[in-house]
Design brief:
This protein is 37% helix and 11% strand. By secondary structure, it is of the alpha+beta class. Helix 6 crosses helix 9, helix 12 runs antiparallel to helix 13 and helix 17 packs across helix 20. Keywords: Carboxypeptidase, Glycosyltransferase, Hydrolase, Multifunctional enzyme, Protease, Transferase.
């Protein structure tokens, strides 16, 4: 049968060309003969492949709510039964009314078109069957955004026409007429970014294709010939005239009754247009940044494809159902806090990530300024919560919130939690061992926040007061290598920019640039008794074929002994009980711990806090450069100097109170830390957290903490971002 079909097709092609030659002199100009055409026809491979159609993908929150619909092409593929029968009939009647009677080629149509064209002296009428049109649409679909491939797929040439004819006969051998029509209705472009009849029905009538009425179906069917000229939004009269032509065709071919035709012709267009909303910009409750992070995960993680091209193809073809870890209630709490306490118009911004300890699940990701491209509306697409490779900037210096990592390394290596040091107000940075050798003292100094902070201190009080010189002395004994190894175990393998971590004493005090999400993961590991998990955003993905895809895993590992984490948790619980964060509370009295942090010149302030069940990192600072948070108004409140406890602390408190309300309470496994025999501080009686707070161990004045301009830098080309190299904010070692 196939052989007979091909012979018939060859005959049909030649017959068509002879007719076309009579009607269109251009064929003669091409120099084509029947022999040439037959040979070229035989040389065309018949392995025509119909690609999977690009569709919209949907991203869902942890409770099944839609975060966003994302697409390269807005399309939802339907089955025959999901389309209104009148829609299918209208498309056939206006495009190819003999579709169910002829084969891949309609010889009667060719002869009729040739006759009409000969009469008019032009090539005004074509004779492509609906199957041939489908083949052309497949070629356009395969071209995608490749302009050269698109021009080739739409080029009006005899060679292209012959190729389409051969592919059409192949399709009619492989598929039923109903299948071809269904495929056609799914692939066809209807204007306004609507590909396929379902997207078109939604776009123009705000309904599904299965619910289309006669006049609605007629209007959509009429659009296909020229979506621009018959655009019902821009050219309603032309659209109505074209719709009426289709209605009359339905009547002519007896697919509707005269009364149905009369009623349909009398009806208004009834357009209920829905703007094609695409991508993360449509996400609600501030989820645009998380949505963008999910997009980066799919495009970057090898689990979704070995090469970048493979992953891009998966994303572009779409049809994915991406279920994420985001908790809508916790997201709402985070979004409310960062937008209530800080205004989008403020010179500074806030960012917050919440992570579930022991799982790595990202439960919330929010920042003050809205997701979008309009800078005049204070919008941004820069995700301040994540690393540069995932759509973020070059990170922020975490200040004293890095000190607990050194404490963990010290306890893990056998340092007693009662360890004391002189902790003088100011000391020179001492020589320290590194993984590769030695960092040699160069005369630079480090000092405590207040001149009254003079030891001796033990680890508990030093952590509560965030005493810089204590932790530098601790670092000398422990060495920079164990701290770097602990930083790595807690998921920080590079700076947020992707640059390598440098082993230097100032890193003890946070002279590195990291993202809030990374710090939330660190503190989640403390909460989970030392179990570190990579942050994960995606719980499952269902492909366009309905099959589940592999997703990135949390890869949980024990970064430290449980008893080490218990010690850190006990130290950080002291911070909120009688240390620099004693003003921060959770209303229901549940147990929590945390650490404040500020950087030189108050360029950044942090509070990273956690319960056993929820870890939350909050950063506050200038989103596009260094803004000194002194004598500044934030969220309508004036600050003479921002501290971790006074800036990000209240943001954390507002979010956590909403996030944990009504959830079960858990407790830490704490360790007993005896008080030192001799009262520390040489008789210093200043309270641990005066108002304003005593500080977070930042802002040395002489820049000795080695912060890169004290805070945030941007990737090259983003809002004037530089290369993240050493700046003018202190000495770098």
């Amino acid at each position: 049968m196939a052989g007979l079909g091909l012979k018939f097709l060859g005959t049909s092609v030649l017959a068509g060309l002879l007719v076309a030659g009579m009607a269109m002199p251009a064929v003669g100009a091409l120099g084509l003969t029947a022999k040439d055409t037959a040979e070229s026809f035989d040389n065309i491979p018949d392995d025509f492949k119909t690609p999977p159609l690009s569709q919209a993908s949907y991203i869902y929150d942890a409770k099944g709510g839609v975060i966003a619909k994302v697409f390269d092409r807005d399309r939802t593929v339907l089955t025959k039964d999901q389309m209104a029968p009148i829609m299918r009939q209208a498309q056939v009647d206006i495009e190819d009314n003999r579709f169910f009677e002829h084969g891949a080629i309609d010889l009667k149509g060719i002869i009729r078109a040739a006759s009409k064209n000969a009469e008019s002296g032009s090539a005004a009428q074509g004779a492509s069957t609906l199957t041939q049109q489908y083949v052309k649409n497949v070629n356009v679909e395969q071209a995608g955004d490749d302009q050269d491939a698109f021009l080739e797929a739409t080029r009006k040439s005899m060679g292209r026409k012959i190729q389409e004819l051969k592919y059409a006969i192949k399709l009619e051998e492989d598929l039923s007429k109903d299948q071809i029509l269904t495929n056609y209705l799914n692939i066809t472009f209807y204007g306004h970014q609507a590909y396929g009849v379902e997207a078109a029905a939604t776009r123009y009538f705000s309904k599904s294709a299965k619910d289309l009425t006669i006049p609605e179906a007629a209007m959509l069917a009429g659009l296909v010939q020229n979506p621009s000229a018959y655009d019902p939004v821009l050219h309603p009269q032309a659209a109505q005239n074209r719709r009426n032509t289709v209605i009359n065709k339905l009547l002519e071919y007896k697919h509707i009754t005269p009364q149905q035709a009369k009623d349909a012709l009398a009806s208004p267009l009834g357009i209920k247009y829905k703007e094609p909303l695409n991508g993360c910009i449509t996400a609600q409750a501030g989820m645009g940044f998380f949505c963008d992070y999910v997009r980066h995960v799919v495009k970057m993680d090898p689990v979704f494809g070995k090469t970048q091209a493979d992953r891009q193809k998966l994303w572009s073809q779409g049809g994915l159902k991406i279920y994420t870890t985001i908790d809508p209630e916790k997201q709402a709490a985070a979004y409310k806090a960062v937008t209530t306490k800080v205004n989008p118009t403020d010179s500074v911004s806030a960012a917050m990530t919440m992570i579930k300890p022991g799982t790595g699940e990202i439960l919330a990701m929010a920042q003050t300024r809205p997701y979008g491209l309009d800078a005049k509306q204070n919008q941004t697409v820069l995700n301040l919560n994540v690393d540069a490779a995932m759509g973020g900037g070059n990170g922020f210096s975490p200040g004293s919130t890095f000190k607990p990592i050194l404490a963990a390394a010290a306890l893990e290596s056998g340092t007693p939690i009662t360890q004391q040091y002189p902790s003088e107000h100011q000391i020179p940075y001492p020589t320290m061992t590194t993984c590769n050798g030695t960092w040699k003292a160069d005369g630079s100094t480090v000092e405590n926040e207040s001149s009254s902070e003079v030891g001796p201190y033990d680890m508990k009080e030093a952590m509560a007061k965030s005493v810089n010189t204590y932790f530098v002395e601790l670092g000398k004994d422990v060495g920079l290598c164990p701290m770097k190894q602990m930083v790595n175990k807690l998921g920080i393998k590079t700076l947020a920019s992707g640059a390598p971590l440098v082993q230097q004493p100032s890193s003890i005090l946070g002279a590195v640039e990291v993202s809030p999400m990374r710090m939330a993961a660190v503190y989640a590991a403390f909460a989970a008794r030392g179990l570190y998990c990579d942050p994960i955003a995606i719980s499952s993905v269902v492909g366009a074929d309905g099959k589940k895809l592999a997703v990135p895993q949390a890869n949980c590992t024990q970064a430290m002994l449980g008893t080490t984490a218990d010690g850190v948790n006990t130290l950080l619980k002291t911070v909120i009980e009688k240390g620099t964060a004693s003003n921060i509370k959770i209303n229901d009295g549940r147990e929590f711990a945390g650490k404040t942090g500020t950087t030189d010149n108050r360029y950044a302030a942090w509070f990273n806090g956690y319960t056993p069940d929820l870890a939350t990192a909050v950063w506050l600072g200038g989103p596009g450069g260094n803004v000194s948070m002194r004598n500044i108004t934030i969220g309508g409140e004036y600050f003479d100097s921002v501290y971790g406890s006074s800036g990000p602390g209240p943001i954390w408190q507002m979010a956590m109170n909403d996030a944990v309300a009504g959830t079960p309470k858990s407790s830490f496994q704490l360790v007993s830390i005896p008080d030192p025999a001799t009262p520390p501080g040489g008789g210093n009686t200043e309270p641990a957290n005066p108002a304003p707070p005593a500080g977070d161990g930042g802002a040395n004045g002489n820049g000795a903490t080695g912060l890169i301009n004290g805070g945030f830098t941007l990737p090259p080309g983003v809002i004037g971002g530089g290369n993240g190299g050493p700046g003018k904010g202190g000495k770098h070692h």
